[in-house]
Amino acid sequence: MTRRAGRIAAIATASAALLLLSACSANADGSNGPAKLVTQVEQSKKVDVASLEKSLGTPQAKNGVKLCYVTRTLANEFWGYERDGFEKEAKKLGVKYQTFAVNDESSITEQLDKAQSALNQGCSAILASPISATGLDSVFKAALAKGVPAIVLNDAKGTVPGVVYVGPDATTIGQTAASYIAKQLPSGGKVAMVEGDPGSSNALNRGKGFKAGVADHTGLQLVASQTAKWDTNQAQTIANAMLTANPDIKAIYSQNDGMGLGVQAAIAAKGLTGKVLLVGTDGIPQAKKEIAAGNYTATVSERPTTEGATGVKVALWLLDGKTVPGWVDVPAFIVDKANVSEYQTGMP
Question: Given 45, 251, 275, 328, which residue has the most CB atoms within 10 angstroms?
Fold first, then answer.
């Protein structure tokens, strides 16, 4: 080989290597890191959980897979059921798992630290219930860049491409509560709402849905709406003030059942049990006990155990190269005196 031919061969070899490196490191959008996860998620598509499971079947876990769930405070039993669904399904499918819970329900910083810790501990997929819509976006982006699936359970459906949301439509939950109240009050009347933490996507969207639902029923009038930040005691104080200022309130919507129990206490203290409708959200066992006893009208029940289990399946489907929708819908439903006997223990 001549010296000139050798130089040409060397240039060709280097060019081929550069092209190979580019093909391995560039995403479809030109950024670095694996693009496959993003292409596996059909971001604009929404499919109900039953249809998706029928389509994709039972996922198979590969050796060495570890799933991590970053949840909120387990002092709120709703998140305990979400965790239970996650851990039981992981155990059932033979997958290693770890849960990271925060102590402060409103501390975005604490949850972000937990999520970063999870990502640094070799998790094959990150599942999370963010306190705020964008609070964990930096972790989700870092995970996807490493080829680690990112899945949101129940709250804070985000906009990061490649992140899958598993849960109900929070706006629809608020609308469902308003429609239920309208049916119970055919002649209309004044209503009030006790809101969750203003930084929470669930609180914002449930409130948006409830207000829209009230507006759709001309007989209803929203006369008071205030945040109790998911706190039972604050909810009792606020509901008491609402009932004092507006003694003719016909119904109160509480954005979760924990606060709803505080509202129930305020209604009882005023001697208005059975006279003022109380509709909550979540379907926690204590709320259902109160519904059965006639002290609480209804709850828009979510399915946290199902959501947790579905999150595990979605993670494994993604790790197996399957395509999934950006939104796996796990619809909520009304529990009242007509069907509460079917759901008195646990959460679906």
Answer: 328
What are the tokens at 264? 């129930």
Domains detected in the chain? 29-168+304-330 (3.40.50.2300), 170-301 (3.40.50.2300)
Q: What amino acid occupies position 3? A: R
In sign, the C-alpha dihedral spanning 332, 334, 339, 345 is positive
* pLDDT tens per residue, range 273-323: 999 999 999 999 999 999 999 999 999 999 999 999 999 999 999 999 999
Name the nearest CA neighbour of 232 among 263, 201, 208, 211. Answer: 263
Q: Give dist(CA 139, CA 119) in Å, integer.
A: 7
DSSP at 32: B
DSSP β-ladder status, 249-254 and 277-282: parallel
Residues 310 and 328: beta-carbon distance below 8 Å = yes
